[in-house]
């Protein structure tokens, strides 16, 4: 009989994944118990933390852990919820230093650990994710990568799983990881049943269709900021990067190096992302053909444009339009 710990960290944890995860596992355990002769899988499902009550949304909601983590000597699975948007990751990490140490000790004793969305900040602060892949909400990918450069961020994936460590993408995609864990600890049938009960698309593996490229400007390199502004204002201009470097009084090599350090992309990759983001918006809001949009973005090869679009979004241009612009496809 296994022990599941759903953490209620200090700071501003999001109550939705805490409640939803608890409900999903309780529902799975209830359904499992109906099978003749079945023994409980998780005989203990507890909410645990380091405070008696955690208030969120200025006290509008509160979550009360039933156990202090110091009372849990052995657990089999730990789930770290996400934090509310716009909360400071550094502050959340400091507030939960005791939880971080406890997670590390439990993992070394054999526990599996799963982070939901921005719960990855707490998981990464244990050091257990160093050198491993980590998924997180696309909007936090750059900040997370800056704080934890030793972790490989894969913001296009919904789930990662390495050596008993699980991470998930952003917002409500945490339920895909919950279903994944239900399948692992119960069976496929239970995961499908819970997917139907909670009306969640099972086996969703990519966040790419939901990504919004926001330009990674949380750095202090003025030259790169000027280059970003130029590329974003004139994405379709056939302006060689060499000329842009000259305009900014730096060498092409220096611009590439500084751009990669500041944004994680080369100038050309950055320009491609800007162009694809512009193409996405046109597909969402206009009735222009894919070829018309392609030409406006400065591309001449339809096949190459489709391949680049699919690489960035995970969908073809037509599939993307079908998903986000119902008016244009009716």
Describe this structure in words.
By secondary structure, this protein is α/β, with parallel strands linked by helices. Helices cover 47% and strands 13% of the residues. It contains 15 helices and eleven strands. It has helices at residues 15-33, 89-95, 97-108, 120-125, 141-147, 174-185, 188-198, 222-233, 241-247, 252-263, 267-285, 290-296, 302-313, 317-324, 326-329, and strands at residues 2-8, 42-49, 54-56, 61-63, 67-68, 77-80, 112-115, 133-134, 152-153, 159-162, 165-168. The strands form three sheets. It has a seven-stranded mixed sheet with strand order 5-2-1-6-7-11-10, with helices on both faces. Strands 3-4 form a two-stranded antiparallel sheet. Strand 1, helix 1 (15-33) and strand 2 form a beta-alpha-beta unit. Helix 1 crosses helix 7 (188-198). The longest helix is centred in the first third of the chain and has 19 residues, at 15-33. The model has no long low-confidence stretch (mean pLDDT 89).
